[in-house]
Design a protein that fits this description.
alpha+beta; 2 domains; about 20% strand; elongated
């Protein structure tokens, strides 16, 4: 039995192996036209990134896709849901009770956030429920929500409580909570 010695350069043979062929890192000009169409249709960056990978087999990072969109001089369009418009009442408190057209949100619940937070609370404010009942609310450092003031025997409807929680969440997120 004889062994033949392989005298070829191992580095050369590896670099020419089809298994080591690298995937393209940038789309072709035709693919860039397709990407421009996707962006024009309102597709977001992360969706474009995924589609480039699945459709073209080009693996790009999010920031590379962002740079590509900038290089192609494309404008991203954000499809945002219509959010309730924040307004300010006569005392300077923010409210989220009005939609873009100024009408009350479903349930007629109005949430106000105090500009100055009392000691021991992360946030505070007041709420007016759809039946006109008013309560003060506080959110402590543990995330516990408390209602006080007004008629102590009053219990808001489940719909009003859900609307209050939604509006409070939206208002506090707008303030970085």
């Amino acid at each position: 039995m004889t062994f033949s010695e392989d005298t070829s350069d191992p580095q050369n043979s590896e670099s020419q192996s089809p298994l080591n062929a690298e995937a393209p890192t940038e789309p072709t000009e035709e693919q860039k036209i397709e990407i421009a169409r996707w962006v024009a249709e309102g597709m977001g960056l992360s969706d474009v990134q995924k589609k480039i990978n699945t459709d073209f087999g080009v693996v790009m990072t999010y920031i590379d896709v962002r740079f590509l969109v900038d290089d192609l001089d494309l404008t991203l369009t954000d499809k945002e849901e219509e959010k309730p418009k924040e307004t300010t009442d006569s005392t300077g408190n923010d409210t989220v009770a009005a939609d873009a057209d100024g009408s009350l949100t479903p349930g007629g619940v109005s949430v106000e956030v105090d500009p100055v937070t009392p000691p021991g609370a992360m946030a505070s404010g007041s709420v007016t429920f759809s039946d006109g009942q008013n309560k003060k609310w506080t959110l402590d450092q543990f995330g516990r929500l408390g209602l006080s003031g007004g008629d102590e025997s009053y219990k808001p409807s489940d719909e009003d409580v859900m609307e209050f929680q939604k509006q409070l969440d939206a208002s506090l997120r707008g303030r970085g909570f």
